[in-house]
Amino acid sequence: MGIVKLGDVEVSISGTLMDLKNAIFTQCLEAREGLVMPEKLRIRTMDSKRHVCLVLRDNSQTLKRCKLSSGANVSVQLLPKIEDLSPTANVIWVAPRLTGSGYQAYRRGGGEHG
């Protein structure tokens, strides 16, 4: 699954992470089936190469404290249930990597080079 641009949302820099989740939910995701509430969204920062980075955890934290500024890109993940991560919990992004003959078979099968 690749990146899908949801659109732009406007939230005050003094707003909270929950304000951002609510804005994303109402402006971009409300019509999607299966998503019942904004609390099921996981927000992650993205670097300049659009790689996902930190999971933003505390919904009461301000966007300024999360170091999000105007024009920031974030990754939004839809979760099957509400997530309650402790401050010391690690979230690791795992992605498959095809090498050698596995990659060649993937290419012959119509896969695209990413």
Please characterize this protein's 3D structure.
The radius of gyration is 17 Å and the shape is elongated. It has a three-stranded antiparallel beta sheet with strand order 2-1-3, with helices on one face. The model has no long low-confidence stretch (mean pLDDT 79). The protein has 114 residues and is an alpha+beta fold. The chain contains two helices and three strands, in the order H-E-E-E-H. The chain has helices at residues 17-29, 100-108, and strands spanning 41-46, 52-56, 74-78.
Any key phrases for this structure?
2 helices; elongated; alpha+beta; 3 strands; three-stranded antiparallel β-sheet; 114 residues; 14% strand; single chain
Strand content: 5-15%
CA gyration radius, whole angstroms? 17 Å
Measured distance between first and last alpha carbons? 11 Å
Please trace the helix and strand order, writing H or E for each element: HEEEH
